[in-house]
Amino acid sequence: MAVAVSAGPGRSPLERFLSLFAEVRGGEGGRLLLLVFNVFLILTAYYVMKPVREALILAQPGGAEIKSYSMALQAVLLVFLVPAYGKLATWLPRRRLINSVTAFFIACLPQFYLAAEQGWPVGIPFFLWIGIFSLMVIAQFWAYANDIYTPDEGKRLFALIAFGASLGAVFGSFISSRLIGVLGVHTMLLVAAVILAMNLVVFNVIDLRERSRSRARAGGEADARIGHGNAFGLVLRNRYLLLIALMILLLNWVNATGEYILSSIVQRAAEERVAAGELARADESAYIGSFYAGYFQVVNVVGMLLQLFVVSRIVKHLGVAVAVCVLPVIALGSYAVAALLPSLVVMRWVKTAENSVDYSLQNTVRQMLFLPTTRVEKYKAKQVIDSFVVRAGDVLSSATVFIGTALLALGTAGFAWINVVLVLFWLVAAVLVGREFLRRTDSGSGGSV
Asked: What's the predicted TM-score (pTM) here?
């Protein structure tokens, strides 16, 4: 059933079609579609590069362990990179900031390609690079979207913009699987560079339109200045941002620990099949790869369908404050079931439910939380939360796994119960974030300054 919208003057056929999925009003379709395409290209490029990341880092001895340690090293690097981004945001206007940062990441890809072709050990550097890229560039895109939309517009339209990200993840995985065997692993880096260059062109088309709109308004800025403020300090001094940071920290702590639980069960299932003579040792990796291929496909497809048909309706009818609590409630029930029935079938569907809702509803609402913030908070504080805090959650998960395995000898059920406790704290944080969001939007505070 279509989302009910007011007739409104001058809605184009495109806007009437988009209104099947969200409340799109007259004059909003063009900018909306460009932003959808923009984030689609970013996620397509990222998912084209993900198989390259795995191939480069896992091809070396001890690759799985190195991969785990590299996640922690990303968090350390972000302690320095986030303030550096903040300084750049102070010096450069909005358009030049986004162009400069994106162009830097594009310029790195041919260098990685040449180094890999020469046989240089680029597995760790590329793993660190893509981890930082995936956090900073996506956070930057959503900061821009938050900046050009009002809270009312964002609550109505972000679900459709986020669909572009979901579609890009599916499409990037699809073309990567088709091209990597034809072009080779390293050449995919050049494919990603071309896609990101297209993304940069689309961004500049969008921003050219935005600058024209700004010049048409009295006192509008041709190229918006972001403002001053220490990135970490902005978060630490603001109760609302601190609550968002705590919620994201707990979310990623739970999610990463859940990924470990699933990985350990899959690995154990494969070893049991080998021991029982049902699977040849040489086919063990193929069994694991086949499981994850099917698992990721289901997660991405379910997430995309939720994004297109469910997310905007939940936000419209229940509101952001309720929507932000949906994922922790699902996770609470899921991990409680996993703790009582710790099997591969149960854990697979626990993570499918968690990740599909995370990639759709939770991701959309998470971006909406920054609508009632200032421009400097959108660009600087958001980088802290969407990059450093995310990786800090992964580090805490790694510490949990180390303590749970090396010191406490926990099994699947033990880790699931840990997640149940963490989700309870996450749910409390989500409730507090939702209340503060309502207070800010109802009072009209925040917004770009």
From this structure: 0.81
Residue 231 lies in a domain: yes
CATH number of the domain that residue 197 is part of: 1.20.1250.20
- Amino acid letter at 409? A
- With respect to residue 7, please indicate whether it lies within any of the assigned structural domains: no
> What's the half-sphere exposure (Cβ side, CA atoms, 13 Å) at 387?
36
| Environment class of 410 (CB within 10 Å of its CB; exposed 0-12, middle 13-18, buried 19+) | middle
Q: Is 210 domain-assigned?
A: yes
- Per residue of the chain (449 residues), give pLDDT as tens: 344 444 445 778 888 888 888 888 888 888 999 999 999 999 999 988 887 776 676 555 555 556 666 777 888 888 898 888 888 888 888 899 999 999 999 999 999 999 988 888 788 888 889 988 988 899 999 999 999 898 889 989 998 999 998 889 888 888 887 887 778 878 889 999 999 999 999 999 999 988 877 666 545 455 666 767 788 899 999 999 999 999 999 999 999 888 888 877 877 887 888 888 887 877 665 666 567 667 777 888 888 889 888 998 999 899 999 999 999 999 999 899 888 888 888 888 888 889 899 989 999 999 999 999 988 899 899 989 988 998 899 889 888 888 888 888 888 889 999 999 999 999 999 999 999 999 998 754 444 43
Domain holding 210, by residue range, is 26-443
Distance CA(38)–CA(217), nearest Å, equals 25
